[in-house]
Specification:
Layout: E1 4-17, H1 21-29, E2 37-50, E3 54-58, H2 65-73, E4 80-85, E5 89-92, H3 105-115, H4 120-134, H5 149-161, E6 167-171, H6 179-194, E7 198-202, H7 206-212, E8 215-220, E9 223-228, H8 230-248, E10 273-275, E11 280-288, E12 300-302, E13 306-315, E14 322-329, E15 335-340, E16 356-364, E17 370-380, E18 386-399, H9 422-430
Parallel strand pairs: 3-7, 3-8, 5-6, 6-7, 12-18
Antiparallel strand pairs: 1-2, 1-4, 8-9, 10-18, 11-13, 13-16, 14-15, 14-17, 17-18
Protein backbone atom coordinates (compact mmCIF):
# COMPACT_ATOMS: atom_id res chain seq x y z
CA UNK A 1 0.00 0.00 0.00
CA UNK A 2 3.03 2.28 0.42
CA UNK A 3 3.53 2.57 -3.36
CA UNK A 4 -0.17 2.89 -4.19
CA UNK A 5 -1.53 6.25 -5.31
CA UNK A 6 -5.03 5.23 -4.18
CA UNK A 7 -6.10 2.46 -1.83
CA UNK A 8 -9.56 1.53 -0.57
CA UNK A 9 -10.21 -1.05 2.12
CA UNK A 10 -13.75 -2.27 2.85
CA UNK A 11 -15.25 1.09 1.85
CA UNK A 12 -19.03 1.49 2.13
CA UNK A 13 -21.29 4.50 1.76
CA UNK A 14 -24.80 4.74 3.16
CA UNK A 15 -27.31 7.50 2.37
CA UNK A 16 -30.45 8.11 4.42
CA UNK A 17 -33.75 8.69 2.66
CA UNK A 18 -36.69 10.27 4.45
CA UNK A 19 -40.32 9.90 3.43
CA UNK A 20 -41.17 13.33 4.90
CA UNK A 21 -39.02 16.37 5.80
CA UNK A 22 -40.31 16.24 9.38
CA UNK A 23 -38.75 12.78 9.82
CA UNK A 24 -35.31 14.35 9.42
CA UNK A 25 -36.15 16.94 12.12
CA UNK A 26 -37.42 14.23 14.49
CA UNK A 27 -34.13 12.35 14.12
CA UNK A 28 -32.22 15.48 15.18
CA UNK A 29 -34.51 16.24 18.13
CA UNK A 30 -34.88 12.64 19.32
CA UNK A 31 -31.45 10.94 19.22
CA UNK A 32 -31.50 7.19 18.77
CA UNK A 33 -34.81 7.19 16.91
CA UNK A 34 -34.76 7.21 13.13
CA UNK A 35 -37.47 6.93 10.50
CA UNK A 36 -34.97 7.00 7.63
CA UNK A 37 -34.59 4.33 5.00
CA UNK A 38 -30.96 3.33 4.46
CA UNK A 39 -29.58 3.13 0.94
CA UNK A 40 -26.10 1.65 0.54
CA UNK A 41 -24.54 3.13 -2.58
CA UNK A 42 -21.32 1.14 -2.01
CA UNK A 43 -20.65 -2.06 -0.06
CA UNK A 44 -17.20 -3.27 1.07
CA UNK A 45 -15.22 -2.04 -1.94
CA UNK A 46 -11.50 -2.85 -1.81
CA UNK A 47 -8.89 -2.13 -4.47
CA UNK A 48 -5.60 -0.30 -5.11
CA UNK A 49 -4.37 1.89 -7.94
CA UNK A 50 -0.61 1.96 -8.49
CA UNK A 51 1.18 5.19 -9.29
CA UNK A 52 0.99 5.98 -13.00
CA UNK A 53 -1.80 3.47 -13.62
CA UNK A 54 -4.97 4.32 -15.57
CA UNK A 55 -7.99 2.55 -14.05
CA UNK A 56 -11.32 2.33 -15.85
CA UNK A 57 -14.52 2.26 -13.79
CA UNK A 58 -17.36 0.44 -15.52
CA UNK A 59 -20.95 -0.09 -14.42
CA UNK A 60 -24.52 0.82 -15.28
CA UNK A 61 -26.15 3.97 -13.94
CA UNK A 62 -26.71 3.64 -10.20
CA UNK A 63 -23.86 1.18 -9.66
CA UNK A 64 -21.98 3.57 -7.35
CA UNK A 65 -19.35 4.96 -9.72
CA UNK A 66 -20.06 8.66 -9.07
CA UNK A 67 -20.29 8.10 -5.30
CA UNK A 68 -16.90 6.38 -5.37
CA UNK A 69 -15.31 9.20 -7.37
CA UNK A 70 -16.75 11.86 -5.06
CA UNK A 71 -15.24 10.10 -2.05
CA UNK A 72 -11.87 9.93 -3.77
CA UNK A 73 -12.15 13.63 -4.62
CA UNK A 74 -12.94 14.40 -0.96
CA UNK A 75 -16.45 15.79 -1.46
CA UNK A 76 -18.01 12.78 0.31
CA UNK A 77 -16.82 10.75 3.29
CA UNK A 78 -17.22 6.96 3.53
CA UNK A 79 -19.64 5.55 6.08
CA UNK A 80 -17.24 2.70 6.86
CA UNK A 81 -13.84 1.65 5.61
CA UNK A 82 -10.60 3.44 4.84
CA UNK A 83 -9.54 5.54 1.82
CA UNK A 84 -5.97 6.69 1.23
CA UNK A 85 -5.17 9.14 -1.57
CA UNK A 86 -1.50 10.04 -1.96
CA UNK A 87 -1.05 13.20 -4.01
CA UNK A 88 -2.82 16.24 -5.42
CA UNK A 89 -6.20 15.34 -6.96
CA UNK A 90 -7.86 17.09 -9.91
CA UNK A 91 -11.41 15.86 -10.47
CA UNK A 92 -13.38 16.37 -13.70
CA UNK A 93 -16.72 15.49 -12.14
CA UNK A 94 -18.95 18.54 -12.47
CA UNK A 95 -16.91 20.89 -14.63
CA UNK A 96 -16.93 24.43 -13.33
CA UNK A 97 -18.81 23.61 -10.13
CA UNK A 98 -16.44 25.91 -8.21
CA UNK A 99 -16.81 28.86 -10.58
CA UNK A 100 -18.40 32.10 -9.40
CA UNK A 101 -20.68 33.42 -12.18
CA UNK A 102 -20.05 37.02 -11.14
CA UNK A 103 -16.27 36.67 -11.51
CA UNK A 104 -14.47 36.95 -14.84
CA UNK A 105 -12.87 33.92 -16.40
CA UNK A 106 -9.44 35.19 -15.34
CA UNK A 107 -10.56 35.61 -11.73
CA UNK A 108 -12.12 32.15 -11.71
CA UNK A 109 -8.91 30.60 -13.03
CA UNK A 110 -6.96 32.00 -10.08
CA UNK A 111 -9.72 31.23 -7.58
CA UNK A 112 -10.19 27.65 -8.80
CA UNK A 113 -6.46 27.05 -9.06
CA UNK A 114 -6.01 27.95 -5.40
CA UNK A 115 -8.81 25.55 -4.44
CA UNK A 116 -6.89 22.84 -6.31
CA UNK A 117 -3.75 23.59 -4.27
CA UNK A 118 -1.71 25.94 -6.47
CA UNK A 119 -0.08 29.14 -5.28
CA UNK A 120 -0.77 32.50 -6.90
CA UNK A 121 2.64 32.38 -8.61
CA UNK A 122 2.06 28.86 -9.96
CA UNK A 123 -1.29 29.87 -11.44
CA UNK A 124 0.22 32.99 -13.02
CA UNK A 125 2.95 30.87 -14.62
CA UNK A 126 0.35 28.56 -16.18
CA UNK A 127 -2.31 31.12 -17.03
CA UNK A 128 -1.25 31.61 -20.66
CA UNK A 129 -1.41 27.84 -21.29
CA UNK A 130 -4.85 27.64 -19.66
CA UNK A 131 -6.18 30.56 -21.71
CA UNK A 132 -4.74 29.14 -24.94
CA UNK A 133 -6.25 25.71 -24.29
CA UNK A 134 -9.69 27.17 -23.46
CA UNK A 135 -9.50 29.38 -26.58
CA UNK A 136 -12.35 31.72 -25.59
CA UNK A 137 -10.61 34.93 -26.67
CA UNK A 138 -11.51 38.20 -24.94
CA UNK A 139 -14.22 36.45 -22.95
CA UNK A 140 -11.50 35.44 -20.48
CA UNK A 141 -11.99 38.93 -18.97
CA UNK A 142 -15.79 38.86 -19.02
CA UNK A 143 -18.03 37.54 -16.23
CA UNK A 144 -18.60 33.79 -16.46
CA UNK A 145 -22.37 34.34 -16.35
CA UNK A 146 -22.12 35.73 -19.91
CA UNK A 147 -20.51 32.52 -21.25
CA UNK A 148 -22.20 29.96 -23.43
CA UNK A 149 -22.24 26.42 -22.05
CA UNK A 150 -19.44 25.45 -24.45
CA UNK A 151 -17.19 28.32 -23.33
CA UNK A 152 -17.86 27.48 -19.70
CA UNK A 153 -16.81 23.84 -20.19
CA UNK A 154 -13.70 24.84 -22.17
CA UNK A 155 -12.41 27.04 -19.36
CA UNK A 156 -13.29 24.56 -16.60
CA UNK A 157 -11.53 21.68 -18.35
CA UNK A 158 -8.50 23.85 -19.14
CA UNK A 159 -8.07 24.71 -15.46
CA UNK A 160 -8.51 21.11 -14.28
CA UNK A 161 -5.87 19.63 -16.61
CA UNK A 162 -3.24 22.34 -16.15
CA UNK A 163 -2.77 22.11 -12.39
CA UNK A 164 -0.26 19.25 -12.79
CA UNK A 165 -2.20 16.82 -10.58
CA UNK A 166 -0.75 13.61 -9.20
CA UNK A 167 -4.17 11.97 -9.60
CA UNK A 168 -6.75 12.80 -12.27
CA UNK A 169 -10.38 11.72 -11.86
CA UNK A 170 -12.57 11.87 -14.97
CA UNK A 171 -16.31 11.14 -15.02
CA UNK A 172 -17.56 11.25 -18.64
CA UNK A 173 -16.12 14.76 -18.92
CA UNK A 174 -15.06 14.21 -22.52
CA UNK A 175 -18.66 13.81 -23.68
CA UNK A 176 -19.21 17.57 -23.56
CA UNK A 177 -18.20 20.40 -25.85
CA UNK A 178 -17.89 20.52 -29.63
CA UNK A 179 -16.06 17.91 -31.69
CA UNK A 180 -12.85 19.94 -32.03
CA UNK A 181 -12.72 20.49 -28.28
CA UNK A 182 -13.32 16.78 -27.58
CA UNK A 183 -10.28 15.89 -29.71
CA UNK A 184 -8.22 18.50 -27.89
CA UNK A 185 -9.35 17.06 -24.55
CA UNK A 186 -8.47 13.53 -25.58
CA UNK A 187 -4.99 14.54 -26.71
CA UNK A 188 -4.43 16.34 -23.41
CA UNK A 189 -5.71 13.32 -21.50
CA UNK A 190 -3.29 11.05 -23.32
CA UNK A 191 -0.40 13.44 -22.62
CA UNK A 192 -1.21 13.40 -18.90
CA UNK A 193 -1.50 9.62 -18.80
CA UNK A 194 1.76 9.17 -20.72
CA UNK A 195 3.50 11.51 -18.27
CA UNK A 196 2.77 9.07 -15.43
CA UNK A 197 -0.25 10.71 -13.80
CA UNK A 198 -2.50 8.25 -11.99
CA UNK A 199 -5.94 8.36 -13.63
CA UNK A 200 -9.41 7.08 -12.78
CA UNK A 201 -11.63 7.14 -15.84
CA UNK A 202 -15.38 6.51 -16.07
CA UNK A 203 -16.91 5.97 -19.48
CA UNK A 204 -19.53 3.84 -21.21
CA UNK A 205 -17.49 3.96 -24.43
CA UNK A 206 -15.81 0.55 -24.92
CA UNK A 207 -13.12 1.96 -27.22
CA UNK A 208 -12.15 4.65 -24.69
CA UNK A 209 -11.88 2.14 -21.84
CA UNK A 210 -9.86 -0.32 -23.92
CA UNK A 211 -7.42 2.22 -25.32
CA UNK A 212 -6.93 4.57 -22.36
CA UNK A 213 -6.97 2.18 -19.41
CA UNK A 214 -4.38 -0.34 -18.24
CA UNK A 215 -6.83 -2.09 -15.86
CA UNK A 216 -10.55 -1.87 -15.14
CA UNK A 217 -13.05 -2.73 -12.42
CA UNK A 218 -16.74 -3.55 -12.77
CA UNK A 219 -19.24 -2.15 -10.24
CA UNK A 220 -22.80 -3.43 -9.94
CA UNK A 221 -25.34 -2.33 -7.33
CA UNK A 222 -22.57 -0.86 -5.18
CA UNK A 223 -20.36 -3.94 -5.18
CA UNK A 224 -17.08 -4.64 -6.96
CA UNK A 225 -17.86 -7.59 -9.23
CA UNK A 226 -14.55 -8.09 -11.01
CA UNK A 227 -11.25 -6.45 -11.95
CA UNK A 228 -8.68 -7.16 -14.64
CA UNK A 229 -7.83 -6.39 -18.26
CA UNK A 230 -10.09 -3.69 -19.76
CA UNK A 231 -11.25 -5.83 -22.69
CA UNK A 232 -12.30 -8.69 -20.39
CA UNK A 233 -14.12 -6.40 -17.95
CA UNK A 234 -15.88 -4.53 -20.77
CA UNK A 235 -16.99 -7.82 -22.32
CA UNK A 236 -18.43 -8.92 -18.98
CA UNK A 237 -20.21 -5.58 -18.61
CA UNK A 238 -21.73 -5.75 -22.11
CA UNK A 239 -22.97 -9.28 -21.49
CA UNK A 240 -24.48 -8.18 -18.18
CA UNK A 241 -26.28 -5.30 -19.91
CA UNK A 242 -27.63 -7.62 -22.59
CA UNK A 243 -28.92 -10.05 -19.98
CA UNK A 244 -30.67 -7.20 -18.16
CA UNK A 245 -32.29 -6.02 -21.40
CA UNK A 246 -33.52 -9.52 -22.09
CA UNK A 247 -34.91 -9.79 -18.58
CA UNK A 248 -36.73 -6.49 -18.94
CA UNK A 249 -38.21 -7.62 -22.24
CA UNK A 250 -39.34 -10.85 -20.54
CA UNK A 251 -37.76 -12.91 -23.26
CA UNK A 252 -36.43 -16.31 -22.37
CA UNK A 253 -32.75 -16.77 -23.12
CA UNK A 254 -29.92 -19.16 -22.46
CA UNK A 255 -26.60 -17.52 -23.15
CA UNK A 256 -23.13 -18.88 -22.76
CA UNK A 257 -20.09 -16.64 -22.38
CA UNK A 258 -17.62 -19.17 -23.75
CA UNK A 259 -19.29 -22.26 -25.19
CA UNK A 260 -19.94 -22.17 -28.97
CA UNK A 261 -21.58 -25.18 -30.61
CA UNK A 262 -20.01 -24.77 -34.04
CA UNK A 263 -16.23 -24.83 -34.59
CA UNK A 264 -14.66 -21.41 -35.01
CA UNK A 265 -11.06 -20.73 -35.96
CA UNK A 266 -9.24 -19.36 -32.96
CA UNK A 267 -5.82 -19.03 -31.39
CA UNK A 268 -4.63 -20.27 -28.03
CA UNK A 269 -5.49 -18.10 -25.00
CA UNK A 270 -7.74 -15.82 -27.05
CA UNK A 271 -11.07 -15.53 -25.23
CA UNK A 272 -14.52 -15.17 -26.81
CA UNK A 273 -17.65 -13.75 -25.25
CA UNK A 274 -21.06 -14.63 -26.63
CA UNK A 275 -24.29 -12.91 -25.70
CA UNK A 276 -27.78 -12.32 -27.01
CA UNK A 277 -31.26 -13.81 -27.14
CA UNK A 278 -30.14 -16.54 -29.62
CA UNK A 279 -33.34 -16.10 -31.65
CA UNK A 280 -30.96 -16.10 -34.59
CA UNK A 281 -27.69 -17.96 -34.06
CA UNK A 282 -24.40 -17.48 -35.86
CA UNK A 283 -23.32 -21.01 -36.73
CA UNK A 284 -20.06 -20.41 -38.62
CA UNK A 285 -17.68 -17.59 -39.50
CA UNK A 286 -14.85 -17.69 -42.03
CA UNK A 287 -12.34 -15.21 -43.42
CA UNK A 288 -11.33 -16.11 -46.98
CA UNK A 289 -8.43 -14.65 -48.92
CA UNK A 290 -8.68 -13.63 -52.56
CA UNK A 291 -8.19 -17.24 -53.67
CA UNK A 292 -11.11 -18.34 -51.48
CA UNK A 293 -8.84 -20.10 -48.98
CA UNK A 294 -8.77 -19.96 -45.18
CA UNK A 295 -6.83 -21.47 -42.31
CA UNK A 296 -8.31 -23.24 -39.32
CA UNK A 297 -5.52 -21.97 -37.05
CA UNK A 298 -4.71 -18.40 -38.03
CA UNK A 299 -6.55 -16.94 -41.05
CA UNK A 300 -4.17 -14.87 -43.17
CA UNK A 301 -4.80 -12.22 -45.80
CA UNK A 302 -2.45 -9.87 -47.63
CA UNK A 303 -2.69 -6.11 -47.53
CA UNK A 304 -4.60 -4.79 -50.52
CA UNK A 305 -6.23 -8.07 -51.57
CA UNK A 306 -9.99 -8.56 -51.66
CA UNK A 307 -11.02 -10.75 -48.74
CA UNK A 308 -14.41 -12.24 -47.87
CA UNK A 309 -16.02 -12.44 -44.45
CA UNK A 310 -18.58 -15.26 -44.61
CA UNK A 311 -21.16 -15.47 -41.80
CA UNK A 312 -23.70 -18.29 -41.62
CA UNK A 313 -26.78 -17.92 -39.41
CA UNK A 314 -29.70 -20.13 -38.45
CA UNK A 315 -33.12 -19.06 -37.13
CA UNK A 316 -34.11 -20.75 -33.88
CA UNK A 317 -37.66 -19.39 -34.26
CA UNK A 318 -39.65 -17.63 -36.98
CA UNK A 319 -38.04 -14.21 -37.41
CA UNK A 320 -38.79 -11.21 -39.64
CA UNK A 321 -36.07 -9.32 -41.49
CA UNK A 322 -32.83 -9.17 -39.58
CA UNK A 323 -29.37 -7.60 -39.70
CA UNK A 324 -25.93 -9.23 -39.84
CA UNK A 325 -22.71 -7.27 -39.34
CA UNK A 326 -19.07 -7.31 -38.25
CA UNK A 327 -16.28 -5.26 -36.69
CA UNK A 328 -12.54 -5.61 -37.22
CA UNK A 329 -10.58 -4.53 -34.12
CA UNK A 330 -6.93 -4.02 -33.31
CA UNK A 331 -5.19 -5.71 -30.38
CA UNK A 332 -6.48 -2.97 -28.02
CA UNK A 333 -10.08 -3.66 -29.00
CA UNK A 334 -10.44 -0.44 -31.00
CA UNK A 335 -13.06 -0.86 -33.74
CA UNK A 336 -11.22 0.04 -36.94
CA UNK A 337 -13.83 -0.76 -39.56
CA UNK A 338 -17.11 -2.58 -39.91
CA UNK A 339 -20.54 -2.55 -41.46
CA UNK A 340 -23.81 -4.50 -41.57
CA UNK A 341 -26.40 -5.58 -44.10
CA UNK A 342 -28.68 -2.66 -43.24
CA UNK A 343 -25.92 -0.10 -43.88
CA UNK A 344 -25.17 -1.85 -47.18
CA UNK A 345 -28.89 -1.71 -48.18
CA UNK A 346 -29.08 -5.50 -48.21
CA UNK A 347 -32.41 -6.80 -46.89
CA UNK A 348 -32.49 -10.34 -45.53
CA UNK A 349 -35.88 -11.99 -45.87
CA UNK A 350 -37.68 -13.55 -42.92
CA UNK A 351 -36.58 -17.02 -41.91
CA UNK A 352 -38.63 -19.86 -40.51
CA UNK A 353 -37.33 -21.82 -37.54
CA UNK A 354 -34.43 -24.02 -38.68
CA UNK A 355 -33.79 -22.08 -41.91
CA UNK A 356 -30.27 -20.84 -42.65
CA UNK A 357 -28.73 -17.94 -44.53
CA UNK A 358 -25.17 -17.06 -45.52
CA UNK A 359 -24.01 -13.45 -45.70
CA UNK A 360 -20.76 -12.52 -47.43
CA UNK A 361 -18.97 -9.18 -47.04
CA UNK A 362 -16.21 -8.53 -49.59
CA UNK A 363 -13.68 -5.78 -48.94
CA UNK A 364 -10.20 -4.74 -50.02
CA UNK A 365 -8.00 -5.03 -46.95
CA UNK A 366 -6.73 -1.53 -46.00
CA UNK A 367 -5.07 -2.60 -42.73
CA UNK A 368 -1.41 -2.19 -41.88
CA UNK A 369 0.39 -5.57 -41.56
CA UNK A 370 -0.24 -7.04 -38.13
CA UNK A 371 -2.80 -9.05 -36.14
CA UNK A 372 -6.47 -8.16 -35.78
CA UNK A 373 -9.62 -9.71 -34.35
CA UNK A 374 -13.09 -10.16 -35.80
CA UNK A 375 -16.37 -9.58 -33.97
CA UNK A 376 -19.67 -10.61 -35.59
CA UNK A 377 -23.30 -10.01 -34.62
CA UNK A 378 -26.89 -10.24 -35.80
CA UNK A 379 -30.18 -8.69 -34.63
CA UNK A 380 -33.81 -8.58 -35.66
CA UNK A 381 -34.54 -5.44 -37.68
CA UNK A 382 -35.98 -2.62 -35.58
CA UNK A 383 -35.01 -4.23 -32.27
CA UNK A 384 -32.25 -2.93 -30.03
CA UNK A 385 -31.72 -6.33 -28.40
CA UNK A 386 -28.96 -8.39 -29.96
CA UNK A 387 -29.86 -11.85 -31.22
CA UNK A 388 -26.28 -13.12 -31.27
CA UNK A 389 -23.00 -11.30 -30.64
CA UNK A 390 -19.66 -13.10 -30.62
CA UNK A 391 -16.74 -11.02 -29.44
CA UNK A 392 -13.32 -11.96 -30.83
CA UNK A 393 -14.42 -14.87 -32.99
CA UNK A 394 -10.83 -15.30 -34.09
CA UNK A 395 -7.57 -13.49 -34.67
CA UNK A 396 -6.30 -13.08 -38.22
CA UNK A 397 -3.04 -11.85 -39.69
CA UNK A 398 -2.53 -9.21 -42.38
CA UNK A 399 0.67 -9.79 -44.38
CA UNK A 400 2.76 -6.99 -45.94
CA UNK A 401 1.94 -5.95 -49.51
CA UNK A 402 3.66 -8.03 -52.19
CA UNK A 403 5.07 -4.94 -53.93
CA UNK A 404 7.10 -3.97 -50.84
CA UNK A 405 5.14 -0.75 -50.25
CA UNK A 406 5.48 0.61 -46.69
CA UNK A 407 2.22 1.35 -44.86
CA UNK A 408 2.71 4.25 -42.45
CA UNK A 409 -0.81 4.60 -41.01
CA UNK A 410 -3.08 2.10 -39.31
CA UNK A 411 -5.56 2.27 -42.18
CA UNK A 412 -4.44 2.94 -45.73
CA UNK A 413 -6.40 4.96 -48.24
CA UNK A 414 -5.03 6.05 -51.65
CA UNK A 415 -4.06 9.71 -51.75
CA UNK A 416 -3.22 11.85 -54.79
CA UNK A 417 -0.20 14.12 -54.28
CA UNK A 418 0.92 17.04 -56.39
CA UNK A 419 3.76 19.57 -56.19
CA UNK A 420 3.28 23.13 -57.40
CA UNK A 421 6.21 25.56 -57.79
CA UNK A 422 4.87 29.14 -57.52
CA UNK A 423 8.04 30.54 -59.11
CA UNK A 424 7.49 28.49 -62.28
CA UNK A 425 3.85 29.51 -62.40
CA UNK A 426 4.67 33.20 -62.14
CA UNK A 427 7.31 32.97 -64.89
CA UNK A 428 4.83 31.22 -67.20
CA UNK A 429 2.25 33.95 -66.61
CA UNK A 430 4.78 36.71 -67.36
CA UNK A 431 5.70 35.08 -70.69
Amino acid sequence: MGEAAISLKNVSKCFKRYARPIDRLKEILIPGKSNAEEFWALRDVTFEVARGETLGLIGQNGSGKSTLLQMLAGTLQPTTGEIRVNGRVSALLELGSGFNPEFTGRQNVFFNGQILGLTQAEIAARFDDIAAFADIGDFIDHPVKTYSSGMFVRLAFAVAVHVNPDILIVDEALAVGDVVFQHRCMRRMRDLMNSGITTLFVSHDPSAIRTLCSTAILLHKGQLINSGRPENIMNQYLKMMTDLELELESRSTETSPTAIDQPFATTEDFSRVRRGSQTIQITSVNLLNEAGETSELLPTVTFGEVATIRIQVQAQADVPEFIVGFFICDKNGVELLGTNTQEENLAIKSLAAGEEAVVEFRLQIPLRPGSYSLTVACAESGLVITSDWIENVFVFQVLPPTNGKRIHSLLYHPVEAEIVYPSLLSSTIEQ
